[in-house]
Design goal:
The chain has 293 residues and is α+β, with helices and mostly antiparallel strands. The chain folds into two domains: 106 residues, Immunoglobulin-like (Sandwich), CATH 2.60.40; 176 residues, C8orf32 fold (Roll). The protein contains seven helices and 14 strands. Strands 1, 2, 3, 4, 5, 13 and 14 form a seven-stranded antiparallel sheet that branches. The termini are close together.
Length: 293
């Protein structure tokens, strides 16, 4: 089991004062069978007049805040201590044919009811003919679910270029398929749309990936970033196989899970609405995932 201290800071600066700000954030990691959150803290500056922590529909920690004091800057800073182990999966479930991972067609299977909504199209993972056809090459008849989704993961990693300039936060699955490029969010959405078009249940996962500095270099504080991957339902179980097309690997003890949902829209780290006459604003995000000896 590995121990990490995760720090995430989001800072906004506005060209004119903001009179009212309402926000929602998902920044506290989940407590899971393979992940223990031993400490967590989130601060908002300036201090909101109203702030409440709850658990959302998907079981994620969700914090709402409302700031009514005039402000030209806003910062949200989260820190957590997390211990992560390598997830262990049922080998029999991994070997079942991928067709069994379609909860709408197999409602009799255990936990199918919980997986059903993740087999449906969502706003940011729309079915796309190109993505549907792309997945069909991996989803051959009777192929084991573990083997099929791993093959899809490997193909996306091979066929799509990681390019921060290719897409934006509003880009669609069709955009990523056409450009064959994007970032982790795009690759997760492509895989989700591709699998769901065939009835397979899969969910979007947001979190962090602990990185290593180049040989001979020291860690640079705040140089990490949020990450996104997906998890596919293993039929007849409450287990979800977490795969990362960006890095061509199953999620392991370097992955810190924060939240999951149907797509990015359900689990964005920070979102909100402001009331201001400002024409310009700047955003700076810093993330640090530091191993603890």
């Amino acid at each position: 089991m590995k121990h990490y201290r995760v720090w995430h800071r989001t800072a906004y600066a506005y060209s004119k004062p903001v009179q009212d700000s309402v926000g929602l954030f998902h920044l506290v990691p989940r407590s899971l069978g393979w992940q223990q959150v031993t400490a967590s803290d989130v601060t908002v500056s300036p201090q909101p007049g109203d702030m409440s922590v709850s658990v959302d529909y998907f079981g994620n920690s969700s914090t709402y805040f409302h700031l009514t004091d005039s402000h030209a800057e806003l910062s949200i800073e989260a820190s957590s201590d997390v211990r992560v182990d390598v997830p262990v999966y049922d080998p029999e479930a991994l070997a079942r044919p991928w067709e069994d991972a379609r909860p709408l067609e197999h409602p009799e299977l255990a936990h199918a009811w919980h997986a059903t909504e993740y087999a449906l199209e969502s706003a940011r993972a729309r079915h796309d003919p190109a993505a549907t056809a792309y997945a069909a090459e991996s989803l051959t008849p009777g192929r084991p679910i573990g083997e099929a989704v791993t093959d899809l993961m490997q193909r996306i990693h091979r066929d799509f270029a990681y390019d921060k300039t290719a897409t934006t936060v509003t880009s669609t699955v069709a955009d990523a398929m056409r450009k064959r490029a994007g970032v982790c969010q795009d690759f997760a959405h492509v895989a989700l749309a591709a699998l769901r078009a065939h009835g397979v249940a899969a969910r979007y996962v947001s979190g962090y990936l602990a990185t290593q500095p180049p040989p001979g270099k020291q860690r640079v504080f705040g140089a990490d970033a949020s990450h996104a991957w997906l998890a596919v339902w293993l039929p007849g179980t409450d287990q979800w196989l977490a795969i990362d097309p960006t890095n061509d690997q199953w999620a392991n003890d370097r992955y810190v899970t924060v939240a999951w949902g149907r797509d990015y829209g359900d689990v964005s780290p920070v979102k909100g609405i402001i009331f201001t006459k400002a024409k310009k604003s700047t955003l700076r995000v810093q993330v640090d995932v530091a191993p603890v000896d």
